Amino acid sequence: KCAVCGKHADIHHETNLVGMGSNRKQHNHELSTFIALCREHHTERHTMTWTEFTTKYHVEAIKLSEETIRELRL
Hints:
Largest sheet: 2 strands, antiparallel
Strand order of the largest sheet: 1-2
Strand content: 5-15%
Distance between the termini: 16 Å
Number of strands: 2
């Protein structure tokens, strides 16, 4: 669920981004932080800095365990 509104969400990489054209399967996701965001808030996140977003919504990205990363098929 979206960390902001509770709607259905996707997992957003906040740090150590995969990047367009990168091989997602070879990326070390354990170095990333994540936040669950619905499409609306994911799009909004890309229109502002992380500081602006966290100040507005009072949310934080988190590290995921290796097991959780596997379960989410990241």
